[in-house]
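Why do we bother with a discrete structure alphabet at all? Because it lets us treat a fold like text: something you can write down, compare, and reason about line by line. To make this less abstract, here is a complete entry for Phage DNA recombinase. Read it the way you would read a sentence in a foreign language you are learning: slowly, and without expecting to understand everything at once.
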Amino acid sequence: MSLILPVPDTLPAPLQSAADRLALAARSPATLRAYRTDWDAFVTWCRTQNVMPLPAQPETVAAWVASRLEQGRKAATLARGVAAVSCAHEMAGFESFSRSRIVQDALRGMRRTLGTAPSRKAPVTVAFMRHMLAAQPDTLIGLRNRALLALGFAGALRRSELVALDVEDLVLQEGGALLSIRRSKTDPDGAGQTIGILNGSTIRALDHLSAWCETAGITSGLLFRSVDRHGRVRGSLSDRSVARIIKTAAEIVGLDPERFSGHSLRAGFITSGAETGADALLIAETSRHKSLDVLRHYVRHASLLKVHAGQRFL
């Protein structure tokens, strides 16, 4: 006679906690920060409506989407909010809203109302970049910002990649350097990617980096660091700081800072490459796009008037 033990409905607490940590680790730090913000917003809204946030009813989540839509939130923000609420429910052992018809109908209605075209920020093209670099003061903060802007542009880097760079990630070569990117949005498992950085004669990213590191006394560890108001080099920069640096640099040269974002350096390299006729595959070697479909948008936009079907008869 064999003894069959009953299977418990839930995992023991230590195992469940470990499983939850792994589930959270599958998401990027930026996503988790956004999820926490969205979840806090949802809880606050539920309290004002005197309804239960956890577990929430599908009708509650749909009503929250509708209220945020009235506040002028973007489609991507609304969809991310629902994902955050679903994640919180899954972590707490409740059913998510991924299959809820009521919630999915609310999201579809939102997309029909707002449209699905992404709101794209302006790229910092090479012409803008030259002015931004020239306008930076010769202070410690100015040297850092100049180096950050130039390297972000020359490497088509994301803001999260910029703030994670160490001095050891850059290996100088004749005419440029090899830059190792240990982890990125498209490489969440940390396999690592290496790109080439040209110093060039216009942007001179490596020259600006050398000036920053030498003045700041940085020989190892984090490449870009915060600087306090007394000119003392401190700890790490946040990826939001990169966005602020870009916006401020744009404003200094007379551009509308609201048109630019942390993505503008990366978009600027790709757009500038497309405008000068660089091969898409060569651009992708630096930008590390896995799919050329995304890259094709930039190339097509830059070529709309240069290569036109009506060029010979209009």
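What the structure line is telling us, in plain words: The longest helix spans residues 29-49. The longest strand covers residues 176-181.
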